[in-house]
């Protein structure tokens, strides 16, 4: 009896050892498949289906389908990239010509109504150029075609450039644009962050009938906060969650110039760098858009 019991135990141990070895082999195979998938080198030719377990076979088919899907996504991105480049290229010359000829016409001695029409053509041409440029930038960001490169940089040069660029516009409206100097630094992409802040300052100047616009910076433990504060018309609480949507325009500003894409683009740029955008506003008293950039 003891002999048969010992034999049964030996057989059971052998079976358990074989099962453990097979399980380890399956896990090792799946691990290699995952490594190949992460490196982008996985292909069904890498395995012999006849030697795999059912689990390995199903997993291999899943990874193969995922690889095909990834290649399809990459191909679609290439098509979008080409389409964006074509749109940008094909529209640039006609818009530039439209603006050039409108300027040439404006220099001529035209009757009053004709002069107003030429100015309207020029203004609409500028609006069209801004819209095309914004849509191209937005498409590149959303499709990962154009990536940002955050790097440790001082904040002051960017804020000084904002003052140089927008102070004349503010002065023409009788506004005061102030940018106190700061020695703070943060981690951001200088070009794209300047684009985001420029959109905020542009809106502040545009929607402030009188008073001032201030761009200031302060430090937190993990972030540098840049505030764009105005004394403009303000934004109601019920609209504050909507204004960052693409093409959204408040009823209060429908008659003003704009396409409703600047705030959406600003938020995409800031969040794409690990920061965030916050709004504090009171109707009739003004708004503060706060950009938080990682330190």
Q: What are the key terms here?
A:
295 residues, alpha+beta, 5-stranded mixed beta sheet, two-stranded antiparallel sheet, 6 helices, 56% helix, elongated
Task: Spell out the blueprint of helices and strands.
Elements: H1 2-39, H2 54-106, H3 112-142, E1 151-154, H4 156-172, E2 176-178, E3 185-188, H5 190-206, E4 212-219, E5 223-230, H6 262-271, E6 276-282, E7 286-294
Parallel strand pairs: 2-4
Antiparallel strand pairs: 1-3, 4-5, 5-7, 6-7
Helix pairs in contact: 1-2, 2-3, 3-6, 4-5, 5-6
Molecular structure report:
- Helix 3 packs parallel to helix 6 and helix 4 packs parallel to helix 5.
- The protein has 295 residues and is α+β, with helices and mostly antiparallel strands.
- It contains six helices and seven strands.
- Strands 2-4-5-7-6 form a five-stranded mixed β-sheet.
- Biggest β-sheet description: 5 strands, mixed
Class of secondary structure makeup: alpha+beta
| Relative strand content | 5-15%
Distance between the termini: 76 Å
| Percent helix | 55-70%
Continuous helix count? 6
Low-confidence stretches: none
Shape: elongated
Overall mean pLDDT score?
77
């Amino acid at each position: 009896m003891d002999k048969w019991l010992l034999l049964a135990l030996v057989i059971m141990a052998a079976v358990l050892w074989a099962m453990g070895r097979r399980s380890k082999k399956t896990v090792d195979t799946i691990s290699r498949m995952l490594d190949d998938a992460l490196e982008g080198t996985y292909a069904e030719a890498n395995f012999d289906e006849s030697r795999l377990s059912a689990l390995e076979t199903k997993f291999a088919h899943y990874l193969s389908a995922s690889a095909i899907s990834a290649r399809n996504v990459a191909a679609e991105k290439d098509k979008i990239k080409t389409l964006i480049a074509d749109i940008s290229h094909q529209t640039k010359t006609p818009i530039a010509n439209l603006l050039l000829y409108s300027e040439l016409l404006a220099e001529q001695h035209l009757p009053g109504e004709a002069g107003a029409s030429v100015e309207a053509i020029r203004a609409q041409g500028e609006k069209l150029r801004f819209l095309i440029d914004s849509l191209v930038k937005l498409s590149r960001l959303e499709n990962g075609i154009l990536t940002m490169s955050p790097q440790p940089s001082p904040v002051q040069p960017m804020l000084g450039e904002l003052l140089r660029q927008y102070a004349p516009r503010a002065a023409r409206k009788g506004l005061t644009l102030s940018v106190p100097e700061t020695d703070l630094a943060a981690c951001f992409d200088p070009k794209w962050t300047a684009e985001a802040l420029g959109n905020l300052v542009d809106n502040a100047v545009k929607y402030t009938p009188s008073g001032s616009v201030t761009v200031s910076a302060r430090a937190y433990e993990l972030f540098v906060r840049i505030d764009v504060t105005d004394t403009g018309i303000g934004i109601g609480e019920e609209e504050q969650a909507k204004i960052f949507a693409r093409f959204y325009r408040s009823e209060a500003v429908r008659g003003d110039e704009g396409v409703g894409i600047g705030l959406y683009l600003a938020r995409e740029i800031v969040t794409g760098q690990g920061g965030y955008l916050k709004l504090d506003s009171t109707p009739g008293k003004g708004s503060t858009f706060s950009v938080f950039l990682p330190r």
